[in-house]
């Protein structure tokens, strides 16, 4: 089975892995948006006592925070170094109920179908060759009645100007080459992937960045970053 991953993308995040938990590093935006994502997820699917899978967990910023909200969390990724950083951080921080594995989401879906109350896949779909395959696996992994949460980047002129030109080259918030415009997904495309995976759309949010206040917020503007919440029919 060919693995649905881009070796260059894995290497890129591997090289930066040691900086993952530095809130002033290249991963500063992830640290800034994490409380917004966490609260939104928790408002729809209260995490305490839930079994949660975080797909493309990287260094574990979201995984760790969900475990601290009382969930039993499994974080998976195919990039070895970020996973080691995630494991080390959990150990140092004393985070309980958290485990990390290096495994493809499609392989885990074959191994553990309908095992999770909630599945998250944040800021990952724009880095894989076949995002529809990932979403299909998410639909397999979640229990009937369970939740799937996704976030990615919209594909339009504004997102190109803000997420690539602005964030990577002008403001230098992200390393140049972090994103590839052709891999961005329109909300309609991602919603179709979700329907094809047997998931029902429950809600959507846009995420905006204000360069003056240096703050992110969730709202209705989905032109650049957006999040989708889906459920698997019970």
From TrEMBL:
Which EC numbers does the record give?
A: 2.1.1.222, 2.1.1.64
Which Pfam family, just one, is annotated for this protein?
Methyltransf_23
Q: Which reaction does it catalyse?
A: a 3-(all-trans-polyprenyl)benzene-1,2-diol + S-adenosyl-L-methionine = a 2-methoxy-6-(all-trans-polyprenyl)phenol + S-adenosyl-L-homocysteine + H(+); a 3-demethylubiquinol + S-adenosyl-L-methionine = a ubiquinol + S-adenosyl-L-homocysteine + H(+)
Biological pathway: Cofactor biosynthesis; ubiquinone biosynthesis
Give the EC class as a word: transferase
**Sequence intervals crossing the membrane:** none
Q: Respond yes or no to whether keyword Transferase is given for this record.
A: yes
Q: Which UniProt keywords apply?
A: Methyltransferase, S-adenosyl-L-methionine, Transferase, Ubiquinone biosynthesis
One of its GO biological process terms is:
methylation
Write out the GO MF terms: 2-polyprenyl-6-hydroxyphenol methylase activity; 3-demethylubiquinol 3-O-methyltransferase activity
Which InterPro entries does this chain map to?
A: SAM-dependent_MTases_sf, UbiG_MeTrfase
Positions contributing to S-adenosyl-L-methionine binding: 37, 56, 77, 122
Q: Which NCBIfam families match?
A: UbiG
Report the function annotation for this chain.
Answer: O-methyltransferase that catalyzes the 2 O-methylation steps in the ubiquinone biosynthetic pathway.
Annotated family: Belongs to the methyltransferase superfamily. UbiG/COQ3 family.
Q: What is this protein called?
A: Ubiquinone biosynthesis O-methyltransferase
- In its UniProt entry, the species of origin is given as Roseateles violae
